[in-house]
Amino acid sequence: MSIWFTKPDLDIINAFGKNTLVSHIDIRFIEIGDDFIKATMPVDNRTHQPMGILHGGASVVLSETLASTGAYLCVDPSVNYCVGLEINANHIRSMRTGLVTGFAKPAHLGRTTQIWEVKITDEQDRLICISRVTMAVLTHAK
């Protein structure tokens, strides 16, 4: 059974990030299942830290982008919206070039909070980063 409020459309979701940090570092949503969402991000000069490896902050951006998008897709947008409340990340492996894929799945979908687990892997499916994102579910002012 699907967790989404309405059927998600990848083209619309990808267009939503136009002219934002998401498009600047080329995060692209690639798949949505009944209870997960996936996106890719290149590891290149836009996402490197000065030592020439993937910047931990870029991994956090991918994690929060996935969790925020997933959270938004789980609520009625005419009533609620979601904002990041807390994020933590463990950086497991470094990489210099290639493409990472983030896989996000909710651990908790509550009335006022959601918790999302995000695993970021390289092209050989090795774990690069794991994070947990807590989202606040807020109600639009009347």
TrEMBL record:
Keywords: Hydrolase. Coiled coil: none annotated. It comes from the Bacteria. One of its GO terms (molecular function) is 1,4-dihydroxy-2-naphthoyl-CoA thioesterase activity. One of its GO terms (cellular component) is cytosol. NCBIfam families: unchar_dom_1. Belongs to the thioesterase PaaI family. This is Phenylacetic acid degradation-related protein. It comes from Desulfonema limicola. The lineage of its organism: Bacteria, Pseudomonadati, Thermodesulfobacteriota, Desulfobacteria, Desulfobacterales.
